[in-house]
Amino acid sequence: MRIQSYRLFFATFALCGATLLASQTSLQIQAPKIAPTPPMGWNSWNHFARKIDDATVRAQADAMVSSGMRDAGYVYINIDDTWEGTRDAQGVIQTNEKFPNMKALADYVHGKGLKLGIYSSPGAKTCAGFEGSLNHEEQDAQTYAAWGIDYLKYDLCSFRDVMKTAPTPAAAHLMMTDAYTKMHNALLKTGRPIVYSLCQYGEDAVWRWGAQVGGNLWRTTDDISDRYASMSNIGFGQAGLSKFALPGHWNDPDMLEVGNGGMKPDEYRTHMSLWALLAAPLLAGNDLTKMTPETIALLTNKEVIAIDQDPLGNQADRIWAEGPLEIWARTLADGSKAIGMFNRNGAPVDMHVDFPTLGFTGRVHARDVWAGKDLPVMEVTYATTIPGHGVVLLRVSK
Ligand code: GLA
Fold first, then answer.
1. Nearest Cα to 104, choosing from 139, 68, 147?
2. Cα separation of 25 and 18, whole Å?
3. Does residue 306's CB lie within 6 angstroms of at least one atom of ligand 1?
4. What pLDDT digit, counting tens, does each position of 139-160 carry?
5. Would you name the residues annotated as active-site residues?
6. In the sheet that 365-368 helps form, which strands lie side by side, from edge to edge?
7. Rounded to the nearest whole angstrom, what is the distance from the C-alpha of residue 221 to the centroid of ligand 1?
8. What is the DSSP string of 138-152?
9. How many degrees, rounded to 5, is the angle at CA 66 between CA 63 and CA 71?
10. How far apart are CA 90 and CA 82, in angstroms?
């Protein structure tokens, strides 16, 4: 009940379009208990897809600890699609043979100081054709809680078949929001804090109503893939959504591809920088048991994570663009700004940022976040060369 009223309180702010300042002032007084900062963890889909099982999940949890990711803030070990079995005579969902004992797996993950996430659909079938939660919402939520689940990704997929029976697009939309609300209520009824992740690919401008149906995060796009074109189209396509993110309720531009091998180091650095600026959930999507030191360094950079996890929850906006060059900035709780200077072109380019346009007059202190170095004190402009498909990420204060 208490959580619900917090949610309504924040959702009202979000949906009435109250000023960011007003909502943030309130949030400092009453931070939400679930997802006060964007969730951090790992998800099985991007790397393992259907080839996920109990032993693999345990190995990922082990590696999250031994790699230092847990200590860097990663918490959730999320099983995506293909864990589902059939229902028993009472309708209770069973795991399939790949997951012999979900409760034991949750105990194992919890024993490592981590949390366990799971996946389902409001439709009859999941995207991979496994058993969904249609007409079993309360039962499934109770089962998840009994297993010790801490996070649910709820993926629209075959619920579209149900929506097709609606007489109008407005009625179809209502069916979808009702379906998401139904599972949210079922999760609340369990009494267990479970992060609720909406996955419906950004349809019907979900950022406008995701908080109202109880979403702690909502996918804003189609599926990411491990290519610069996919990642950058999604990441840079988030312009204009900043006002919908706030503590407890986040835009989700999909899971990370860092470490999966399809992008160059500068491209993965752009991926991490952009997601951190966007206050995006940081859900690693690689095989944590096979990481190079470079991948670990990208995923665990403390200063980058601090930007993503900044308690103000102020998502970055694109403040300047010219051809393939873009500057994005977000204000952080200590009054400093995180600034990303991005080059979407393949070749290096000289670029500069003017501090007065960012509200800084007089001397500024800037730190090159990825270099881990303070820059000399500056006044008006910082000029530097940005690698192809690369970024320079700054943290600037007076
Ligand atoms: C959809 C989602 C993905 C993943 C798959 C699983 O495509 O967007 O993130 O969960 O389903 O089937």
1. 147
2. 11
3. no
4. 999 999 999 999 999 999 999 9
5. 155, 223
6. 317-322, 325-331, 337-343, 391-397, 365-368, 373-374
7. 11
8. HHHHHHHHHHT--EE
9. 105
10. 21
